[in-house]
Design brief:
About 50% of the residues lie in helices and about 10% in strands. The protein is mainly alpha-helical. β4 and β5 form a beta hairpin. It is elongated and about 120 Å long. This is Transmembrane protein.
């Protein structure tokens, strides 16, 4: 056996979900993934989105794939950085939510749909409310009423009071 392959261990995943969750994508079966447990990086075949034709794979092609991964010729995915952690969190949330909706659609409608409907109604009410302050016909503006043409009509009581004050002032001045 080659010296480079002496430290490589081969494993088998019982389900495609485990490998797909590790790769944060949907991997068709059968497929090959190289995992470096020290750096938590993994390597995929260049055409990983296509299933492997088992009849066409040979020991030589698998050996070449492993050597390409060890030599850094394959693109490395994953790792333990902050961005990779955020990607993992978003992926786990999205797959968990999708699994919840697919397994319990009625409950998901109540748990997710009802709050979304309430928030939507509140947003609509806040953003689309009528903000104009229309003055109703006959509503008082100061001491005058507005008629249909928009002209001021002085209240008769106010006009009489104003005339009475004018007459009283006129008598005092004489």
């Amino acid at each position: 056996m080659d010296l480079e392959l002496a430290n490589v261990q081969f494993g088998w995943a019982g389900s495609a979900k485990a490998a797909s969750d590790m790769a944060m994508t949907s991997l068709p079966t059968p497929n090959v993934m190289l995992l470096n447990p020290n750096s938590t990086r993994y390597y995929l075949r260049p055409d990983y989105h296509l299933p492997i034709s088992v009849r066409d794979e040979t020991v030589g092609s698998l050996k070449r794939l492993v050597l390409q991964g060890l030599n850094g010729e394959l693109p490395a995915y994953g790792g333990g950085g902050l961005i990779e952690g955020l990607k993992r969190t978003v992926y786990d949330f999205a797959t968990g939510l999708a699994g919840f909706v697919l397994s319990h659609p009625g409950l998901a409608l109540v748990v997710i749909g009802a709050p979304v409907a309430v928030v939507s109604i509140l947003c609509y009410a806040i953003c689309c409310m009528d903000t104009t302050d229309d003055v109703a016909e006959g509503e008082v503006e100061g001491d005058a009423y507005l008629d249909d043409e928009g002209e001021d009509e002085v209240d008769e009581a106010n006009s009489a009071a104003i005339e009475g004050e004018d007459e009283g002032e006129g008598k005092k001045d004489q």
